[in-house]
């Protein structure tokens, strides 16, 4: 049992002895370390039922708690909070364990034996990915890693849009401008041309809609050649960007061109049983009974809408990987839509109730304003990564990294982008400042990477001076770094449960600050200091925690910077 469980059990026992029911004790960490390591408001929550003053009840609870393993002191604070201070031995034992566990430190088992499918990235093809599109990949990859860390059998799922008006606009643009459909950047310009014409020119709009129908039917050799080349170029570009960001491959890819027919057949097959119903020539799903809206799944022309296509995707998922949990990461604006889709799928498969989750990301804008692929002023993911890579190289121009410099610059550029996105709660809009995101001074991905490399350099120096990490001689005073390291597992569990990677980024940033302050306030490697081996164990524990935490965010931890 973990320490929080031991304290909670003791509180539950005392509340029972006092005849107080209906109160489940909860713990949190006080905002200030001076107030202890755990705190509970159990007395405040139970005071009304016990008909007692909260502070007096808190004092009574403390008196009855007795001895709790690893707890040095228990005290009442404020109107009735109970604070718990852990022992020196608890922290030193934790440090030694974390240093020894290494790459396995922080792993849990909350999803052990579960099959988890994470759908993310899923871009519109026929144009480059811009930095806003990357948000899904960055968040989805972190969610997949969190699930893996919790013991799940995880599969990554990508659902690219390779058919529809977006594609038709790009194909129209290729015909109009004569650009090479094998070039993803040329496709982006062709799409911008087609998108503009679709909105401003009625004749062009009709042509694009006609192209769309022909692409669905694949009855034009000329259009098929453009389409096939553009699709291949788009998928190649997608894979290249995803690899740069840390997604080596998707276990399953299912395309909109396949989802349409599959979803259409699924919807039409469930009209007679009343799941879907005909309405004014269309087929709909009425979700008002669930407090949701009616969604059209087949339009009046008999074509599948996004709803039907997503039904096809769900059917495909169940065939290739019958999941215990399916996580879909897209834009936050689709939240209500997916609630309807999930309800429709549950009507077909009652065993899916509670097994599907939509996680949405907000909008990303630069400090210079919002980006738009329609207007052609898009900042592509490739260009922003490259520009940040160049900026990272400039920052490291005087550092002696030899042949590693390019690889480190790549890692720093990606870390800067990922941290800027993952430090925010999911669904929140982000204003991205490239210069600030590359800072080595704090609140950035490179800052975390640099703290990790600093710890490694200390350990390398100790090795050269033949000073070994050890927990044999422990300093009397506990430093802040020790009092926060053990919380990593709790933070990861919360991030996994709530689908919120930002808990990890916040924790790592706080931890890095504590390490840097501790590093600056005293010598770590010192053959004359009897506590130096323990300081090295603490340094190693920090390095392990930082490396594992960065992995969960999809950020590399270079050994040198």
Q: Can you offer a commentary on this structure?
A:
This protein has 561 residues and is α/β, with parallel strands linked by helices. The protein is 53% helix and 11% strand. It has 20 helices and 13 strands. The strands form 4 sheets. The protein has a 5-stranded parallel beta sheet, with helices on both faces. Strands 1-3-2 form a 3-stranded antiparallel beta sheet. Strands 7-8-9 form a 3-stranded antiparallel beta sheet. A hairpin with a 2-residue loop joins strand 7 and strand 8 (282-285). Helix 10 crosses helix 11 (306-320). The protein is flat.
Nutshell version of this structure?
By secondary structure, this protein is of the alpha/beta class. It has 20 helices and 13 strands.
What's the story with the biggest beta sheet? Answer: 5 strands, parallel
The rounded Rg comes to: 28 Å
| Order of adjacent strands in the largest pleated sheet | 6-5-4-10-11
Q: Give me the oligomer status.
A: single chain
Name the helicity range.
40-55%
| Ends apart, CA distance between termini | 39 Å
Structural class: alpha/beta
Shape summary:
flat
List its traits.
single chain; 5-stranded parallel β-sheet; alpha/beta; 3-stranded antiparallel β-sheet; 561 residues; 13 strands
Task: List strands and helices in order, with pairings.
Elements: H1 3-17, E1 38-40, H2 42-50, H3 54-65, E2 71-77, E3 81-86, H4 88-101, E4 115-119, H5 131-149, E5 153-158, H6 165-177, H7 184-200, H8 202-217, H9 221-245, E6 252-253, H10 256-268, E7 277-279, E8 282-285, E9 295-298, H11 306-320, E10 325-331, H12 335-348, E11 356-361, E12 364-366, H13 381-395, H14 405-422, E13 430-432, H15 434-437, H16 445-464, H17 480-485, H18 488-498, H19 502-520, H20 532-552
Parallel strand pairs: 4-5, 4-10, 5-6, 10-11, 12-13
Antiparallel strand pairs: 1-3, 2-3, 7-8, 8-9
């Amino acid at each position: 049992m973990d320490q929080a469980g031991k304290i909670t059990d003791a509180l539950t026992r005392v509340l029972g002895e006092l005849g107080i029911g209906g109160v489940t004790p909860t713990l949190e960490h006080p905002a200030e370390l001076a107030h202890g390591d755990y705190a509970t408001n159990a007395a405040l929550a139970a005071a009304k039922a016990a008909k007692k003053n909260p502070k007096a009840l808190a004092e009574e609870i403390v008196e009855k708690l007795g001895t709790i393993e690893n707890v040095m002191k228990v005290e009442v604070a404020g109107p009735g909070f109970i604070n718990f201070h852990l022992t020196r031995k608890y922290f030193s034992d934790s440090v030694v364990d974390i240093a020894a566990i290494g790459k396995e430190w922080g792993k849990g088992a909350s999803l052990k034996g579960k099959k988890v499918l994470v759908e993310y990235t899923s871009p519109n093809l026929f144009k480059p990915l811009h930095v806003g599109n990357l948000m899904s990949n960055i968040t989805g990859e972190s969610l997949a890693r969190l699930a893996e860390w919790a013991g799940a059998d995880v599969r990554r799922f990508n659902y690219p849009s390779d058919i529809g008006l977006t594609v038709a606009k790009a194909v129209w643009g290729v015909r109009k401008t004569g650009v090479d459909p094998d070039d993803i950047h040329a496709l982006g310009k062709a799409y911008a041309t087609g998108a503009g014409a679709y909105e401003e020119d009625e004749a062009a709009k009709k042509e694009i809609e006609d192209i769309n129908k022909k692409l669905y039917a694949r009855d034009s050799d000329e259009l098929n050649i453009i389409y096939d080349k553009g699709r291949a170029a788009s998928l190649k570009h997608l894979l290249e960007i995803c690899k740069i960001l840390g997604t080596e491959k998707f276990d399953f890819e299912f395309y909109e061109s396949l989802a349409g027919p599959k979803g259409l057949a699924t919807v039409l097959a469930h009209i007679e049983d009343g799941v879907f119903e005909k309405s004014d020539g269309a087929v709909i799903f009425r979700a008002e009974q669930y407090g949701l809206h009616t969604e059209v799944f087949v339009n009046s022309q008999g074509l599948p809408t996004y709803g039907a296509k997503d039904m096809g995707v769900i059917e495909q998922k169940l065939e290739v990987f019958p999941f215990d949990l399916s996580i879909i990461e897209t834009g936050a604006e689709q939240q209500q839509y997916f609630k309807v889709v999930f309800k429709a799928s549950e009507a077909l498969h009652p065993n899916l109730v509670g097994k599907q989750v939509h996680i949405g990301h907000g909008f990303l804008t630069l400090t210079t304003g919002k980006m738009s692929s329609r207007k052609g002023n898009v900042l592509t993911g490739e260009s922003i990564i490259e520009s940040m890579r160049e900026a990272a190289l400039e920052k490291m121009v005087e550092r002696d990294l030899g042949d590693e410099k390019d690889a480190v610059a790549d890692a720093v550029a990606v870390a800067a982008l990922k941290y800027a996105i993952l430090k925010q709660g999911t669904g929140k809009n982000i204003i991205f400042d490239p210069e600030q995101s590359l800072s080595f001074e704090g609140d950035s991905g490179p800052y975390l990477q640099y703290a990790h490399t600093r710890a490694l350099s200390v350990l390398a120096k100790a090795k050269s001076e033949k000073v070994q990490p050890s927990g044999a001689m422990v300093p009397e005073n506990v430093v802040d770094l020790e009092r926060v390291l053990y919380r990593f597992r709790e933070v990861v569990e919360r991030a996994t449960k709530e689908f919120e990677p930002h808990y990890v980024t916040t924790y790592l940033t706080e931890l890095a600050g504590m390490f840097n302050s501790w590093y600056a306030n005293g010598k770590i490697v010192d053959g004359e200091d009897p506590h130096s081996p323990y300081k090295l164990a603490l340094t190693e524990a920090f390095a392990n925690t930082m490396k594992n935490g960065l992995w969960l965010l999809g950020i590399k931890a270079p050994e040198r910077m």
